[in-house]
């Protein structure tokens, strides 16, 4: 672990489209660790809550939204956050709704994912190494963390009085993009049981699991994608309409939950499922693992790969 860990930053926030900063928190500094997978999307902002609790913030597409979803350096993003000492990641994403009851402006805590990426994104820390690992991903989000968030996010939405609803237990489809879906695809995802769609939750969530980090996504609905017969299909302009309001509300949610989340992370409360989860995922023939690969992997999993 790098010297950056001494900041005691246990919680990382990943901001998506529209959420490029947490300017309701106090800026402390930028850090930009070089990981074995390169640099993160942008320097990571270390910022403080009024209590002094520090958190790390990373803009997924860079602060000027210059990185398209297929090119987000997710391995570097997750590795960099882990190198700071982060144990839990609260990620935000702008999503399309595949269900009538999930309206633009609503917030959602998905618990399942359907993968419609096209295999062009590096999706594992083990890729290209002599180490094989088969990570359990049946429940792609941290279950206890999701439960923990439910009441807290609900409270912020109610207090905000904007009418934004919270939906839980939903399934998000992650498509490759950058173009939006056809009408036929949008309808197919509904038939498959998809409730939401974005271009970012994979491989981010898989990599968080490989790094034994607790990961939850707050999906903020911006549009109805392209399945509604009578409506025109989604455009970026539709997405932009709700992006700013959703981002403002996301900042309120972050401001409200981060102190308590830091405390829970410090106690190990919501982290028990992920820590240790890779132990039986890694194929055990360590004699055949190259030293250079063990060194690389020790950056994210020192418990298994530090000699
Ligand atoms: C701007 S519309 C499509 C774009 O928005 C979402 O980004 P993020 O998940 O980072 O909020 C979606 O995944 C696409 O990348
Ligand atoms: N309709 C949509 N499809 C994919 N990603 C999105 N992000 C926001 N809206 C989206």
TrEMBL record:
Enzyme Commission no:
2.4.2.28
Write out the catalysed reaction: S-methyl-5'-thioadenosine + phosphate = 5-(methylsulfanyl)-alpha-D-ribose 1-phosphate + adenine
Q: For the Nucleoside phosphorylase domain, which residue ranges apply?
A: 11-256
Q: In which pathway does it act?
A: Amino-acid biosynthesis; L-methionine biosynthesis via salvage pathway; S-methyl-5-thio-alpha-D-ribose 1-phosphate from S-methyl-5'-thioadenosine (phosphorylase route): step 1/1
Q: Does the keyword Cytoplasm apply?
A: yes
GO MF, one example: S-methyl-5-thioadenosine phosphorylase activity
Task: Report keywords, A-Z.
Answer: Cytoplasm, Glycosyltransferase, Nucleus, Purine salvage, Transferase
What does UniProt give as GO cellular component? Answer: cytosol; nucleus
Name the top EC class.
Answer: transferase
Q: Spell out the subcellular localization from the entry.
A: Cytoplasm; Nucleus
Query: GO terms for biological process?
Result: L-methionine salvage from methylthioadenosine; purine ribonucleoside salvage
Q: What broad class describes the main subcellular location of this protein?
A: cytoplasm
The site (Important for substrate specificity) lies at 181, 236
The UniProt entry, under CDD domains, shows: MTAP_SsMTAPII_like_MTIP
Answer yes or no on keyword Transferase: yes
Question: What residues bind substrate, as annotated?
Answer: 199, 223-225
Q: Where does phosphate bind?
A: 17, 60-61, 93-94, 200
SUPFAM superfamilies (UniProt xref): Purine and uridine phosphorylases (SSF53167)
Give the family, as the similarity comment puts it: Belongs to the PNP/MTAP phosphorylase family. MTAP subfamily.
Complexes and interactors: Homotrimer.
* Role: Catalyzes the reversible phosphorylation of S-methyl-5'-thioadenosine (MTA) to adenine and 5-methylthioribose-1-phosphate. Involved in the breakdown of MTA, a major by-product of polyamine biosynthesis. Responsible for the first step in the methionine salvage pathway after MTA has been generated from S-adenosylmethionine. Has broad substrate specificity with 6-aminopurine nucleosides as preferred substrates.
What is the name listed in the Swiss-Prot or TrEMBL entry for this protein? S-methyl-5'-thioadenosine phosphorylase
Q: Which organism is it from?
A: Antrodiella citrinella
């Amino acid at each position: 672990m790098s010297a950056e860990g001494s900041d005691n930053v246990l919680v990382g926030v990943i901001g998506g489209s529209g959420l490029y900063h947490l300017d309701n928190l106090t800026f402390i500094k930028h850090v930009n660790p070089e990981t074995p997978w390169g640099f993160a999307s942008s320097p990571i902002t270390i910022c403080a809550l009024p209590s002094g609790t520090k958190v790390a913030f990373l803009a997924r597409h860079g602060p000027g939204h210059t990185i398209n979803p297929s090119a987000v350096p997710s391995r570097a993003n997750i590795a960099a956050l882990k190198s700071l000492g982060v144990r839990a990641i609260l990620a935000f994403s702008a999503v399309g709704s595949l269900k009538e009851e999930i309206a633009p402006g609503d917030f959602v805590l998905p618990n399942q994912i359907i993968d419609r990426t096209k295999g062009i994104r590096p999706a594992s820390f083990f890729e290209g190494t002599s180490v094989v690992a088969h990570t359990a991903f049946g429940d792609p989000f941290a279950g206890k963390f999701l439960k923990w968030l439910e009441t807290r996010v609900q409270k912020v939405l109610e207090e905000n009085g904007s009418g934004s609803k919270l939906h839980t237990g939903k399934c998000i489809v992650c498509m490759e993009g950058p173009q939006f879906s056809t009408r036929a695809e949008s309808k197919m995802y509904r038939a498959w049981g998809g409730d939401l769609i974005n271009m970012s939750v994979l491989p981010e969530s898989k990599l968080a699991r490989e790094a034994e980090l607790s990961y939850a996504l707050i999906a903020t609905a911006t549009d109805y994608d392209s399945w509604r017969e009578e409506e025109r299909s989604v455009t970026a302009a539709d997405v932009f309409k709700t992006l700013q309001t959703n981002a403002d509300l996301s900042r309120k949610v972050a401001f409200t939950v981060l102190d308590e989340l830091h405390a829970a992370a410090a106690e190990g409360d919501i982290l028990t499922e992920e820590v240790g989860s890779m132990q039986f995922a890694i194929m055990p023939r360590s004699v055949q693992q190259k030293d250079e690969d063990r060194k690389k992997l020790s950056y994210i999993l020192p418990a298994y790969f530090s000699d």
